[in-house]
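Example with several molecule types.
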Amino acid sequence: MSEVERLLREALTPVEPPEGMTDRLERTLTETRDAAVEELTDWELHSMRDPRNWARPIGAAAVLATAAAGLVVVRMRQRQRGRKAHRLGGVERSVRDAAGDVRRRLPR
Amino acid sequence: MDKVELDREFAELYRSHLRDVYSYSYYRVGNHHDAEDLTEQAFLQAYRHFERARRESNGRPLRPWLIRIAHNLAANFYRDRSRKPQTSLDDAGILPATHDTEDLVEGREELEEVLAGVARLPGDRREALIMRFALGMDNREIARALGRSEGATKVLIHRAIRQLEHGIQKAASE
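Resulting structure tokens for the full complex:
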């Protein structure tokens, strides 16, 4: 290491942030995050007044309908085949979970 | 990854690199007040883009990305200041001669000379030296922060040290 490099290492030492800055900055970041969540919620509610933004929930409704139809088919097959209910229980639960998930995504 | 986990990771990144971002900002702007502002802005901007940066980093450390944000904000800081009528255009991007950073090495004449020499270097050379010596970044990290190749960064640092050396020798002989 050259003399200049040694001097540079001594001169350019890391600088500690002032006391209290960490807390202040953490508070600002938390506020920013909360504001962003609030803004998003407001935007979602507001955007639903505009028919152009209905595509997503309509899409979600279509998925829900497909999932529901799938559930009906599964149940019919269950009956037709006379199999024990517990063998398809897992499939039924999955479809029901998917339908629940889509329902949750739909605006209230 | 869910939001809670993402926030937890960001908090970790913030705690690990607050001093780096603050040090870089401080050496760029030369006082605690503006360095604090710059650091806050850098982390707010980082928070907004954290998810994407994390995804695109492919597991590489995010320190160069953070420093790049601070670097760009410092450039904007000087650009905005240079637009104000009370500030001379000549001051843009150059550390003031009587600089708070000199307080750090008060009483050490040789170190004061080094800091003054660093302040006289062209922007990219000065910034590379701050990253190398104040933050301890290696060539690869500096290259990512400055958006250059590793080879170009190595040459940049080498030239910065040589130029500083000549500057100090010249000042001593005058």
